[in-house]
Amino acid sequence: MKILLAEDTKDLNKNVTLLLKTQNYDVDNVFDGEEAINHILNDSYDCIILDIMMPKKDGISVLKELRKRHIVTPVLLLTAKAEVDDRVEGLDAGADDYLPKPFAFKELLARVRALIRRTNLASTEDISIADVLLEASTQSLTSQSSVRLSNKEYELMSLIMNNQDIDLSTEHLLEHVWRGEPNANESTVWLYISYLKKKLEMIGSKSVTIIGEKGGNFHITNTI
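RE: above sequence
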């Protein structure tokens, strides 16, 4: 499970990162909103934790940009603000939950678990095509090297690999991976296809590639 933490208070950032890692989460931690956006556009996460008050770009602005780009990853907002209007603004912008500061670490973990539980994994069996292995137990993609996948990346890769050389429509992928999530659309699918294409390059596969264009059909194929 992969989590992005965006929190500008260094001690809190460090402590929450360590806490999440003790629970076996993979954690990327950043200290401002611009860093958060850069990470989100280049990788996939199972949950994003955003502080509202951050330099360069505040958490609400980051959240609005994500939803505008049809990125539907669950978001937990951290806020020192106690006013109802601030909480409402965050929820209206697309947050899935919020947690006022100061908070108990046990409550943070419980809320993270609740957000991540919304995703059901597509397969419990390993799948291989040519020089690429998708391992269920670790949700990792392996060839010359290995990389962990987020839940959605894993579900999407599992579905595509189980249908090698079969064209799967954008609508089919939305139905079976995002299961009617209201803000998911063809841009969401294309974003995750792009993530997977990058990761196939990262692991050094020489023969496996995903074919397709935004809004159309997709399939995975062995090019050798």
